[in-house]
Amino acid sequence: MISFFRRALTSWPALALFALVLIAFAVTSIDPSWINGRSSGGTQIATIGGRKLSANEARQRTDLALKQAQRENPELSMAAFTAQGGVDQVIDQLISFTALEAWGRKQGISASDRLIDGEIASTPAFFGLTGRFDRGAMQAALAQAKISERQLRADIAGQLIRNQLLSPIDSGIRMPEGLILPNASLLLEQRSGLIGIVPSAAIPAGPAPTPAEIEAFYKANIGRFTVPERRVIRYALFGENDVAAPAAPTDAEIDAFYKANAATYGASETRSIAQVILPDQKAAADLVARVKAGTAIADAARQAGGEAITTDIARAKLAENASAAVADAVFAAAQGGVVGPIKADLGWYVVKVDAVNAKAERPLAAVRGEIAESLARQKRDEALSTMVGAIEDAIADGASFDDLAKERKLAIVTTPALLSDGRAPDQPEWKAPPELPLLLRSANQMGTDDDPVVETIGAGQRYALVAVSQVVPAEPAPLDKVRDEVVAAVRADRTAKQARAIADAILAKAKAGTPLADAIAQAPIKLPAPAKAGARQIELLRNDRPAPPPLKLMFGMKKGEIRLIAAPNDAGWFLVQLGEIVPGDARNEPALVNSLRDQFRRIASEEYARQFIAAASRDVGVKRNDQAIATLKAELGGQGQ
């Protein structure tokens, strides 16, 4: 399964943020080709509380999810994404989102325009050169993505409603110590034993394969020697150097910008705070007392079953997120002060002021150059965005790749026939240019009859007009071209089979009572003696390196048991004997216990959220069109017409 997507869809905070991630991702890198429509575009794939969910909407969200997953795995294609269950998860997620929003609206929950404005203003994709919200940047980004402001606001409103429903689920969940301590101790359990190996490389290669063996192996394993589908890609790069230089900002424009952004250049104050929200007033009051007595707020929050969230925030934003009373108290407190408990919509707030960050006013004379540069950049961006829009409009009107490249005087690059990962098997010496990986995401899904598309490169300062001029179907490589590979594969297959046979014989002797070291020494070939090895279970969970398969196997074995496991990449076979099990004791490991408690609490909150969403879905009513979903998946997976 796609690791990124599995993580993105199995945590309720991720559920709460995923739609906004898609929105922010959409306005910076969406491929608008879905808007052109495909065969099942108008089909309804589900009805949720009276709202019809179209295949086009599901396709758009799938495109976005794929692009996000490709940030971890650039070689991931839509076909592979579909085959690995990505489309199913997107559709399930979209139905859940819609059902939860419908249920919330049914209960009278809404999102104010002010709250929506705040989310838009804090979206980095809409920031200008000053690092602040820039309406011009937002309009340019939405125009590029072909998303209307109304659609953006509707998406954000729905997500804010979902957040209001899901956020309270995470408050006040406590996990019993009787569950945490035994599981923490299991992580400290240590196992050790012996590991032997029968490496394939130790097996004599034997006589050279005969022509008959070579041909038979080639035919029996034709898939291993088949060259996948390839594409010849044509593209033309363009950017701000391809648009006419806009006029320099005037004094009037600079003055107007300064006045419109008075909040940016005027005196301001933010505060670095740590806030805890608890459902119970007494628990919140106890937390205040502990913090004032010297306990770190993070530790005090954890003891109370909550979490201290640190942030830098302005008064208006805090009033919007919590309440005016909370904001007034926080901004009246001195640095180091603790305020609360104060009641707000989400519960009782306790806030510690870690720092007061004051910024003096900057006069126009001091920032005139900065503003002029920002306006000049904005004008260049708008001119480039206009060019992108004009090219996309021309594509929609039927203009070809060659017509557009000639009209815009763009240099055309033609690649060799490329695999989906950008390699050119017919020209192995060919070096892929740095922009190619970003173009493959769309090119790998295109055919020769498809319209060209415009792809964004980098941060949106460069673009590429992309088309596919030839699709070379997958076909077996001729035997004479891969004969050396086939010979090597035949030899490897021989040694792998012999290594397995030797490993099986050693295993049988060891199970019959022969010590593992003696059974290995009696093998018909010289093998290394078994080595002692061991680890604690927690050491196998490290993210910076994969756990060795033999050590992982030990934690699923009984004491004294011997098992066989394949070495990676057909390198041979491991013989694993578990010798000793030392139980762990986490009573003196408070950091581990606290970490595991937090993980269990998150798991519990995720399960509560899933159950809540399921109940909301039943209440509003969800009807899936399985046939339409199957058709959409077939199209996205490359099996449609």
Structural account:
With 641 residues, the protein is α+β, with helices and mostly antiparallel strands. The protein has 4 domains: 204 residues, Triger factor/SurA peptide-binding fold; 142 residues, no CATH class; 128 residues; 92 residues, Chitinase A, domain 3, CATH 3.10.50. The strands form 5 sheets. Strands 14-3-16-15 form a 4-stranded antiparallel beta sheet. It has a 4-stranded antiparallel beta sheet with strand order 10-5-12-11. Strand 8 and strand 9 form a beta hairpin. The longest helix is centred in the middle third of the chain and has 33 residues. The two termini are 26 Å apart. The N terminus is likely disordered.
